[in-house]
Amino acid sequence: MARGPLLAPVDPNFTISNDTCVGRVTAKGTATAKCVVMVEFTPTSGTPKGPVAPVSLSYDFMYGANPPVNVTVTLKGKVK
Predict the structure, then answer these.
(1) CA distance 47 to 61
(2) Are 4 and 60 in contact (CB under 8 A)?
(3) What residues have CB less than 8 Å from 35, skipping those under 6 apart?
(4) How distant is the alpha carbon of residue 48 from its chain centre?
(5) Cβ distance 43 to 52 under 8 Å?
(6) Which residue ranges make up each domain of the chain?
(7) How wide is the angle at C-alpha 57 spanned by C-alphas 55 and 63, nearest 5°?
(8) Model confidence over 47-73: pLDDT tens digits?
(9) Selected residue with higher pLDDT from 57 and 29
(10) Which of 36-58 are b and which e, b meaning 16 or more Cβ less than 10 Å from the residue's Cβ?
(11) 15 pairs with which residues across the strands?
């Protein structure tokens, strides 16, 4: 398993606080191997109350000799 570079920039309202996937490679057949990407909601000063527009965080993901696929998650937050 290997994770490529971040494909989409994270919105100013979200910060990657930890990424154990960068450059990580595990042996083929290691289905239980994992990595973690932690994202924090950090709205910028002056952001109005209420939900912020969702943004996507995308990574290239490759397992063994399979072609890479794109893994995307939607990040959401609400300013109180």
Answers:
(1) 33
(2) yes
(3) 1, 3, 19, 20, 21, 24
(4) 25
(5) yes
(6) 2-79
(7) 155
(8) 899 999 998 888 777 766 777 778 888
(9) 57
(10) ebebeeebeeeeeeeebeebebe
(11) 40
Rounded alpha-carbon distances, angstroms, from residue 6 to 23, 44, 57, 71, 79: 11, 21, 8, 10, 25
Q: Which two tokens stand for residue 70?
A: 């794109």
Which phi-psi region, left, alpha or beta, contains residue 29 (left: φ > 0; alpha: ψ -120 to 50)? Answer: left
Amino acid at 36: V
Q: Which residue has the tokens 């965080």?
A: 57
Distance CA 72, CA 30 (A): 22
Which structure tokens are listed for 9?
Answer: 């920039």
